[in-house]
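Narrative summary of target 7.
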Amino acid sequence: MTAAIKKLKAKTRSRSELHRLTAMFNATPMVVTKPIEKCLERFDPVSAAILRRWVLEYVSMARPTITHVYRCYQADIALMNCEQRPYATPLPTLSKYVFRSAIDSLDPFFVMAGRYGVDATMRHLRRQLPKYSKLSHQALSPLALAT
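Modeled conformation, tokenized:
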């Protein structure tokens, strides 16, 4: 279980928050990349752009593992290095730790919605909403408490 799913389980959200996240996911799925920018700005921009693309591949309905997506990223970097001229400096391959950190920096709602679908995510999050008893829906008055 990734840290993103653990964060999702730890944090309960209100119904309005769930509807807002669903609308944002359906409107602009590329909003997902914004948290990644903070952790990738100190690395090579070309390698970071390729990493960004493969991090977003992790959030797909095929549900690839982190190891599989990281190996695809390494293969993409190796291909780019083979296509470069011999005297050019090779692109650095970012570590698996950076790759996993980029995945963990994604919003857990987007990760779960991308991998399992919005409906499954909403069902999962609705189970975590606090359940109110019958008494809390009624107006509390001294007569209601006395009976």
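The first helix runs from residue 3 to 10.
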